[in-house]
């Protein structure tokens, strides 16, 4: 007889020896807070949205716009901002739509896929912010430097080099932060999803 | 939420709690973890309960939610409590029923299952619960053929693990 079938016989007999929780104990459990992965991902994602929006609001209050006005590129700056906000709103809408679709009564594979999709939306959001920030930063700098007299005798290539370096450092820090934050959170989920997917090829 | 609904839910869960305990038995190590996972399963069931339709069987629905909690949502707390006695509670009562070798073999088998990955554990659990391949494939979201193939592989893996021990 197969090993597993021997175990099956024992498995049926064990019912009598399983622990049993009383009604009051179960009622008490209902009041407890869930520590589920989805909850964690949800809250951290909200923090991410808030962080980037906060950064945006903060920088617009810092009066950086004055220099753009002086360089005559205010309109371009406004356009960059509007595009940014439209895209962010889009991301938030997609995030909530995906989140709504997570149902524990789905089959295991579908459930995992939906959680990973939700996660991916936020990941895209963060990368969009980084890339968009970097691009608009460079474009605006280019116009400011070429349009303003004060910057005429500055070596433009050294300036661009330094800016590029700062940007790379910035991206590296964010990437590292993500590895730490989500590494511990989604490692198990990702591994299990991969296993299910590999086995269903 | 409505008190009457809560009462009804708790009654159903209490009657079916063995399902959750058995999942904990496969996935959790030690008493603290067992209780922790059981609690998370309870919370998830309760959260999903408004969408539970009476036409499905509570136990069938519970299998799905409980297993999803164990392999997808549950995050182990970092605890280092060794509760060997708890792990072996199932063997205690069997002293009269089995001779020592059978008991020893069973113990080894439970240990081997603990070494499997989460998905394989789910397959073993569903097999032990006498679920057919249609149910297994529907619970995990894989095709029936693949469930069958995978099950044979898990059996082989268990055999290997046992021969090493």
From TrEMBL, chain A:
UniProt keyword terms in alphabetical order: Membrane, Transmembrane, Transmembrane helix
Organism: Psychroflexus salis
Lineage: Bacteria, Pseudomonadati, Bacteroidota, Flavobacteriia, Flavobacteriales
Superkingdom of the organism of origin: Bacteria
Name of the protein described by the UniProt record: Uncharacterized protein
Transmembrane portions of the chain: 37-55, 75-99, 120-144, 156-185
From TrEMBL, chain B:
Residues covered by the RNA polymerase sigma factor 70 region 4 type domain: 108-158
Pfam families reported for this sequence: Sigma70_r2, Sigma70_r4_2
Domain RNA polymerase sigma-70 region: 14-80
Keywords, sorted A to Z: DNA-directed RNA polymerase, Sigma factor, Transcription, Transcription regulation
InterPro entries membership: RNA_pol_sigma-70-like, RNA_pol_sigma-70_dom, RNA_pol_sigma70_r2, RNA_pol_sigma70_r4_t2, RNA_pol_sigma_r2, RNA_pol_sigma_r3/r4-like, WH-like_DNA-bd_sf
Keyword Transcription regulation found: yes
Regions that span the bilayer: none
GO cellular component, one term: DNA-directed RNA polymerase complex
Listed GO biological process terms: DNA-templated transcription initiation
Keyword Transcription regulation: yes
Domain of life of the organism encoding this protein: Bacteria
Molecular function terms from GO: DNA binding; sigma factor activity
Matching NCBIfam families: sigma70-ECF
Family statement: Belongs to the sigma-70 factor family. ECF subfamily.
Protein name, as recorded: DNA-directed RNA polymerase sigma-70 factor
Source organism of this protein record: Psychroflexus salis
């Amino acid at each position: 007889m197969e090993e597993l079938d021997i175990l099956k016989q024992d498995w049926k007999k064990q019912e009598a020896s399983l622990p049993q929780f009383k009604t009051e104990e179960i009622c008490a459990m209902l009041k407890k807070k869930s520590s589920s992965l989805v909850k964690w991902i949800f809250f951290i994602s909200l923090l991410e949205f808030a962080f980037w929006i906060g950064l945006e609001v903060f920088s617009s209050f810092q009066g950086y716009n004055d220099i753009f006005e002086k360089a005559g590129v205010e309109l371009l700056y406004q356009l960059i901002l509007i595009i940014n906000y439209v895209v962010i709103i889009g991301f938030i809408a997609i995030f909530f739509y995906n989140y709504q679709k997570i149902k524990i009564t789905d089959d295991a594979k579908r459930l995992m896929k939906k959680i990973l999709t939700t996660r991916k939306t936020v990941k895209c959001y963060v990368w969009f912010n980084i890339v968009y920030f970097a691009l608009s930063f460079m474009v605006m700098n280019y116009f400011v430097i070429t349009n303003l007299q004060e910057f005429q005798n500055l070596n433009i290539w050294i300036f661009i080099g330094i800016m590029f370096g700062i940007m790379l450092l910035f991206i590296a820090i964010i990437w590292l932060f993500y590895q730490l934050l989500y590494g511990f959170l989604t490692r198990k989920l990702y591994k299990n999803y991969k296993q299910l997917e590999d086995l269903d090829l | 939420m409505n008190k009457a609904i809560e009462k009804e839910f708790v009654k159903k869960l209490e009657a079916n709690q063995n399902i959750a305990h058995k999942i904990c038995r496969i996935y959790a190590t030690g008493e603290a973890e067992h209780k922790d996972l059981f609690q998370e399963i309870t919370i998830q069931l309760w959260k999903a309960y408004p969408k539970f339709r009476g036409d499905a069987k509570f136990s069938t629905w519970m299998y799905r939610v409980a297993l999803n909690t164990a392999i997808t949502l549950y995050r182990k707390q970092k605890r280092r409590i060794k509760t060997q006695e708890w792990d072996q509670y199932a063997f205690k009562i069997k002293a009269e029923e089995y001779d020592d070798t059978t008991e020893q073999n069973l113990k080894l088998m439970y240990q081997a299952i603990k070494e499997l990955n989460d998905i394989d554990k789910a397959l073993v659990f569903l097999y032990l619960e006498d679920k057919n391949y249609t149910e297994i494939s529907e619970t995990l979201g894989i095709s029936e053929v693949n469930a069958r193939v995978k099950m044979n592989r898990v059996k082989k893996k268990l055999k290997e693990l046992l021969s090493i021990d």
